[in-house]
Design brief:
Helix content is about 15%, strand content about 30%. By secondary structure, the chain is an alpha+beta fold.
Length: about 260
């Protein structure tokens, strides 16, 4: 199987993003996206920094996939509050040959729309997950967009530690093989990441990936650039055949590409 995980930046780099997704679709079984927007407002295509229909646009590009959307927040785009109905969250697209046996969200930080743009960009209140079957065996995939501070040092905070504990507890309670992936918004040496090491393999570290941020990130080439934000954890029993993070100017993040048996 092949899984691609990517924070899509609200579809800001739309044409390269769609080209990448379309090229990867035939060989990919699962896409896990973060920062995905949807809106019923049909007379607007995008705001200054956000494609407000990017969920529907991705669905059109991926007709051979079913998807699940997990709304974190409403009433905000990537710049701040908006005066129309707009949701943001995570989405998983799963090839139709793999049944989604169940899916849902689990709370990691209480209070949808509990947000102050003086302090935070996003405060997701949940992580998304789905369960499927591979080779007759169950698999759970957890898709996370982690807490963000502004200004952001990507270090441990009580809220981020709470977030990671909740994800780990959920993952360990699954009787299935488990993949946890997404934009955690923390650095590799934080406890928010290292607390997983006793139960899961973390592939960004294992494969000596040098960065998960792209050259079109606003922080590229500045002293404030932080090289890591995205991670992929796997439980014992999942055999990795390949893992890479290619340079691709499709978002301010780079795609994590995992192939496994």
């Amino acid at each position: 199987m092949k899984l691609i995980c990517l924070n899509i930046w609200g579809g800001r780099a739309y044409e390269p993003l769609v080209k990448f997704v379309r090229e990867q679709a035939e060989s990919t079984d699962i896409f896990c996206f973060q920062e995905v927007f949807r809106s019923p407002r049909k007379d607007i295509e995008k705001t200054e920094k956000t494609r407000i229909h990017i969920l529907d646009e991705l669905a059109a590009v991926l007709p051979d996939f079913n998807y699940v959307f997990h709304s974190d927040m409403s009433g905000f785009d990537n710049s701040g509050p908006v005066d129309f109905e707009l949701e943001v969250g995570q989405a998983e697209f799963v090839k139709k040959s793999f049944p989604i046996t169940s899916s849902g969200e689990s709370e990691i930080y209480s209070g949808q729309n509990d947000i102050s743009f003086k302090k935070y960009n996003f405060i997701p209140r949940n992580f998304g997950y789905f369960r499927t079957m591979r080779n007759g065996k169950p698999l759970t995939v957890i898709n996370i967009h982690g807490l963000t501070g502004k200004p952001d040092d990507k270090l441990d905070t009580p809220e981020r530690l709470q977030q990671s504990r909740a994800i780990k507890e959920f993952a360990l309670n699954e009787k299935n093989s488990v993949i946890v992936c997404g934009d955690f918004n923390v650095l590799p040496e934080t406890e928010s990441i290292t607390m997983f090491y006793d139960s899961f393999a973390e592939l960004v570290k294992k494969f000596n990936i040098s960065t998960t941020r792209s050259k079109i990130s606003p922080w590229y080439g500045t002293p404030n650039r932080m090289e890591f934000s995205d991670y992929a954890f796997i439980s014992p029993g999942i055999e990795v055949t390949d893992f890479k993070v290619p340079e691709a100017e499709i978002s301010d993040h780079l795609p994590l590409i995992l192939e496994f048996n």
